[in-house]
Amino acid sequence: MIDLHTHSLFSDGELVPAEHLRRVEILGYSAIAITDHADSSNLDFIIPRIVKAAADLNRYSPTLLLPGIELTHVPLEMMAQLTREARALGAKVIVGHGETVAEPVRPGTNRAALEAGVDILAHPGFITREDAELAARKGIFLELSGRKGHSITNGHVAAIARLAGAGLAVNADAHGPGDFLTARMAEIVALGAGLSAEEYARVRSDMAAFVKKVS
């Protein structure tokens, strides 16, 4: 199991990184990213702390912790700048908070995040085929979300990704202990979105290849 989109108490999650990592270690995860919510006000506060946690905890845990960030409701004009700053601060996984139907995300956020070169476009709502094709060209994952509300459009995202040839990632968007996906629940999220077993196997393989590349 791999999850590339989760939150700790450095934003709106419930757990310190050590417990966060221990919880998924027990579930058999091979890797997890902590990608707390950020904008220009807290980017430089969060990332160094997750980087420090990863440096410490990865010495002792069989589950790899990847430091990341989720750029959330940021002005479209700042997306590229903040993506560059996040990478310079040591973020290995950059998530763009996409145009979920569950929140009033500014239209154009999907496109701005893709153009900025994030690694994952989270819960991208009714993403257009044009934007999905851009994700495919740039090797950016579109997310199938396990989180209530964000998951409503998973079927649309899966269908558009298939048409555009875009990669997918299945993530929990976990904020607390009860949110982490088991292997079976992650499979249900994928199959429930309309993926075949073969397509979900490709998703898992692609996510594993990404972790190997950035770690």
Describe, in short, the structure shown.
The protein is of the alpha/beta class and 215 residues long. It has helices at residues 17-26, 43-57, 79-89, 109-116, 129-138, 154-164, 183-192, 197-214, and strands at residues 2-6, 31-34, 37-38, 64-71, 93-97, 120-122, 141-145, 168-171.
Describe this structure as you would to a colleague:
The structure is a single chain. This protein is 43% helix and 17% strand. The protein is an alpha/beta fold and 215 residues long. Strands 1, 2, 3, 4, 5, 6, 7 and 8 form an eight-stranded parallel sheet that branches. The chain is globular and about 40 Å long. The two termini are 16 Å apart. The model has no long low-confidence stretch (mean pLDDT 98).
Query: What is the third-level CATH name, the topology?
Result: TIM Barrel
- In whole angstroms, how far apart are the ends? 16 Å
Shape field: globular
Secondary-structure-based class equals alpha/beta
Which regions have little confidence, pLDDT < 50, spanning 5+ residues? none
Percent of residues in β-strands: 15-25%
> What does the average pLDDT come to?
98
Number of domains: 1
In total, the number of strands is 8
Report helical residue fraction. Answer: 40-55%
Per CATH, which architecture? Alpha-Beta Barrel
Largest sheet: 8 strands, parallel
Q: Please give the CATH class.
A: Alpha Beta
